[in-house]
Structures are given as structure tokens and as C-alpha cells.
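During the second year of the project, the team shifted from modelling isolated chains to modelling whole assemblies. The rationale, set out in the original proposal, was that interfaces cannot be judged from single-chain predictions alone. As a representative example for this report, we include one of the complexes processed in the last quarter. Its constituent sequences, exactly as entered into the pipeline, are reproduced here:
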Amino acid sequence: MLLKVESLDVQYGSAKVLHNVSLNVKKGELVCIVGRNGAGKTTLLKTIAGFLNPTKGKIIYQDALINGLRPDKVALLGIKYVFQDKRVFGDLTVRDNIQLAAYPTKADVEQAVERLFKISEKMRRLIDTKAKGLSGGERQILLIGRSLVGNPSLLLIDEPTEGLAAKVIDEIARILMEMKGLLSMIIVEQNLAIVSRMADRVYIMKEGSMLKEITDREQINEQSYIESLL
Amino acid sequence: MLIKLRHSVLFAISCFVIGFIVFAYSASINKVTDFIIFCIYVLGFDVLYGHMGRISFGHTLYLGAGAYGTAMFAKYVIPDPFLSIAIGIITGAVVGIILGPIVVKTKGAAFALINVAFNQVGYFLVLVALARFTGGEDGVSLSFKNYGFINFNNMHFLFYFSLVSLVVVYYLMYRLYLSAFGAMLIGIKENEIRVRFLGYNTHKYKWIAFIISTSISAFAGSLYVVNYGFVNPSFIDPARNVEVIFAALIGGPGTEIGVVVGGTAYMVISNYLPKYITRWEMFLGIALLIIAFKFRKGIMGYIREFVDKRIQALKTIG
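Output from the structure prediction step:
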């Protein structure tokens, strides 16, 4: 098991936002978390990434307890977080964005840049463009490419297709599918068609709790079934 | 050709070196030496403001730390100019090392004000608490040793020494901002939390940037002391903090050449405008209001934008 989250409680001040949440991810697995707004999906990812401290429970990554570790330490362990809002470092070029990610992991910048081109060939002509000039889809590709720098074992991706055009969603889905098996991913996603297409397993979250784990392929493919649980 | 010049550090350095030499020999070499040292000070300030997005309202403290470090060493230990300058830089670095962990924890108004608070403490120390050593309000006069042609009492030597110092600091800053460290500073300016998620201990790097900034500012303070041959509390006076902020704003924060242009422009205004207008500060204030509201990118920001548009237009035609 790559990641094991056990009975996690998280609070914002006095408000409890996660109650007794458990989840696990195997090596190479793509797990989707589905739920309505406010279900606690992003909070769960942020807690795993070290941005929030759980008040109860355990986060075990590669057999080591990582509760309370700072985000930079968690990132260096090989867990990378791709935020929902698609904000890149706009005043830096695409190459500088990659370089920035390469430095702490001591990854080779040119190899990282080549990997970005492998994900999406169109990034080649944008490599020296300031990132603030990129479209939403290009930003998401850059963010995914940047998160791969340093060969992480686990990606936490928050709503990768939100706000994107249908054609771009297809491209993002293709990229994620190509990455499948090479590393583990936890993807928070509201687009159930994408979830059905990509997920090995699905977790349903509701009001801060883990409602159900779906492992059956047929149930995963049945969007109306997942919808009925939300 | 235009693209090459736009990105050429050699071109930028050549422009200001020739400009300062022509200006020095056509106006006043003493004043231009002052302008050059001030530009080094603004380069130090801009590490935090232009690149890391933290505005300090107490940067005179670090200029003063260098000035007093140099002066005290020259007066009480040995009046060697090089050793004294080195001690001045070390003093600035030590102040950065001590204050950094507290200062870089803050941002925005808190960052600006915590610097003023420390500046006030430093001002009080040299003016009152340590007046026995610093000479209090009167300050201390100094005379530095000469070694052959290395004569810090010679205005020509001082001018070229300051100019070479500016070129060195400018080039080092240029290299720093091109590196991953420079990209990380911009990242912190844009979104510090995201930088942490990439694996950076941002507190440590902000501290390093702070020490670089205080050391460069202290270097400028040391050069002032060597240039003037005295030190007094005006070198560390919190009321003078606006000078460096105005200079960075005029030239364009976050661009090395903008900082040099802004530093020079501010010094020209403050040195020559009073000859024609008694209350020149009022006009400077109005000019700065216009900059703050309408021209936030500063002189170089707009020149760069214009050049970039030309390059884009040429590319389109090509």
C-alpha cells in the first residue's frame, strides 16, 4: 500500500470538516474522489499534502507516518499537489516554472522539460512564453507537467477539468490516462464521465465523511449510480 | 538586433557606465559618485521589494549598519578602507541573520512596519545609547589609509571604485535573478504557498534573500562613509526610508536597470530641483502620486513594454 489514511478528523477552528475519513491508494492506482461542493474533498487532499494538520487519525505513506509534516517536506517525500485554481507562476516562463520545480528535487531541468513536451507537444512552442499568457488548458498541462518533476510517487489532483472546454477536457483526460500505472493518483473530480473513464476505484464523500468506496467496474461505469449516491 | 539588446546585460552595463562617466565629467564627480552608491543601495532594497514582493519601510537601518560598522572599525581598530568596507558588509549581514527569522515571518504592512520598528531601535542606539562610541548627533570623522594609487581621498579613484562596485553588484544580481533562486523569489512574490508545495522551505530562502538585501545595502552604507569620511545618524535616520522606495518606484521595481535608472533619477531630482524650486519635495510627492496611480511599472517597465511590443510587431511582420 502506498498511502493509507486512517480515521482522519480535521477542523477549521472549532468547525469539524472531516469526520473519521479513511482511504487507501495502491502503487500505480488511480483513485477518484467524488462529492458535492463542501463534502471535504479538497480539505482531504490539503491534509494529505501537509497544508492542514489532522486533529485525529493517521496518514501513512510508504509505511511512514507523515501527520503534521510541512508541505515542503511532504513534497520532497514524493507527494505532489495540483491545485484546483490552475494558477501558475505567471511572471515566469514555462521553462522557469519547470526549473522552479526541479531545483528542490535536484531533477534535471532539460529532462523535465522534455517530459512536458512528451505530455503535450504544443508546449514546445510555448516554452519561453510567460505563463500568464497561457490558456486554461495549457496552464493545467503545465501544472501536471510541473508536478511530475522529480518523479513523485503520488499526485493529488484537485478538479483537473473544472472550467475547461470539452476538447481540452479530453486532452487532460488523455494525459492522465497515459500517466496511469506509472504513478499513483488521487483525483478529485465532479465530471462523472471522466471518473468512469479513468478511475480504478471511486470514493464518495458527503458532508465531511467517506460515504462509500466503489470497487466494482460496472458500478464505476454507471454514472447514474454514482450520481444517486451524491 | 532589438531582441539581442533587450536581453543583453552587457548592453545595459555599458549604457550606465558610459552615462555615469559622461555625467561625472560634465557635471560633478562627487555628486555622481553619490548617485552610484545610492543605486547600489536601491539594488539591495529591490531584492526584497521588486523580486520578493516585500516592501521595507526601515531599510535605512541596513544602510546605517554598514556605515557604522565601517566607521567604528576604522576609528577604533584600523583605518584600512578595504577591511573597513568588509566589516561594514559583515555588519549588514549579521543584522540580517539576527533580524531575518523574525522579519521574514511577516508580509505586507507587518513586514513594512517591523522594519521601521527595528530602524527606530538602531537610530536610538547610535544617537543616544551608544553615543559614547558613535559620537551621537555629531557623528565621527574618519581618515582612511592610502596604498599608492589606492587613495580614497582622491575623488577620481572613489568614483571609479564605486562604479566598479555597482557593475559587480549589478552583474551578481543579474545572475542571481536568472537562477532557480531568482525564479523562486518571483514565485514567493506571486504565491508563497504554491512554492512550499513544490518542496521549498520558503522561510529559509526568504531569510537568505533578506541577508543578501541587508548586505548589499550595508555595502552602500560603507561606500558612503569612505566617500564622505564621516558618519552621523542621518545614515540610519528612519525618515529617509522614503528615498529608496521612491527611487525603486520611479525606475521600475524588479528590473535591475530600472533600479539604476530610478536611483539616478531620484538623485538628480533631489540634487538639482532644489536649485530652482524651494519646496521641491512637494513636486516630488505629486510626481510620485502620478507614478503610483498611473505608471506603476516605472520608467523602465514602460520602456521594456514598448520594446517588447516592437519586437512582437517585428516578429509578426517577419
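The two ends of chain B are 13 Å apart (CA to CA). Chain B has a mean pLDDT of 90.
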